[in-house]
Amino acid sequence: MTNVLIVEDSRITRKSIERQLRELDGFNVLLSIENAANAEIACMKGNIDLILMDICTSDNESGLKAAKRIKQHYPQIRIIMMTSMPEHSFIRKAREIGCDSFWYKEYGDMDLTEVCLRTMEGESVFPEDTPALRIGEVSSKDFTERELEVIRLLASGCKYSDIALELSISENTVKFHIKSIMAKTGYKNTLQLVADVVEKRLVLPKY
User: Fold this and answer.
1) Which residues, in sequence order, are CB contacts of 142 under 8 Å at separation 6+?
2) For residues 50 and 100, what is the distance between their CA atoms, to the nearest angstrom?
């Protein structure tokens, strides 16, 4: 029997996941909570084999940060990260902290139950890429990784000098990347850019 902890802030989604798992042979919903900060406490009590972890949980608690702590202390517990947010860095971050699989709630055509079964069989199930979003006049796929890093730091409120320091590049290089981003998107200033990427959740700095 696979004992499951569900961490999901939406009550409707949480109940839906509970129903799906209760219909799946060999899976037992041990606990269902809405805040990632309580997930590690639940793990201390033992008996958890699989966590379905939402990335953005109640009280702005990050599921990624909670998953990182859990993997450090309980590496045997398998974790499937879940999100409806198309944030460009989430898949990479989930891989880096050792999460076992990743599931988009609103993108792709794979059922959560299939991801759970394959994960517990030892497979690592990840989407090939993040969903494409329209940002200004281009697709988010048209940005380079460095440009996405610059966009993320702009959305975090960083000045050019801060971005240069964070990325270990010169301010002139920062200006070069921003000029390229502006040319691609057609925006007149970075305020328009930041408003768009945050509204469409291409970047979510706090997570």
Assistant:
1) 184
2) 10
Convert the pLDDT of each residue in 88-98 to its tens digit: 899 999 999 99
**Percent of residues, the chain, with pLDDT higher than 70:** 100
DSSP state of 161: H
Neighbours of 132 (CB within 10 A): 14
| Dihedral sign computed on CA atoms, order 8, 121, 93, 65 | positive
Please give the sequence-ordered ranges of beta strands (E in DSSP) within the chain, or none if there are none.
2-7, 27-33, 50-54, 78-83, 101-104, 134-135, 138-139
pLDDT tens digit sequence for 118-162: 999 999 999 988 888 999 999 999 999 999 999 999 999 999 999
Provide the residue ranges of all domains of the chain, joining segments of one domain with +: 2-120, 134-199
Coil, helix or strand for 109? coil
- Reading the block at residue 129, the tokens are 């890429």
Tell me how far apart the alpha carbons of residues 41 and 45 are, in angstroms, rounded to a whole number.
Answer: 7
What is this structure's pTM?
Answer: 0.85
- Choosing among 3.40.430.10, 3.40.50.10490, 1.10.10.10, 3.30.300.20, the CATH entry for 134-199 is 1.10.10.10
The CATH superfamily label for domain 2-120 reads Response regulator (3.40.50.2300)
Longest dimension (CA), the chain: 58
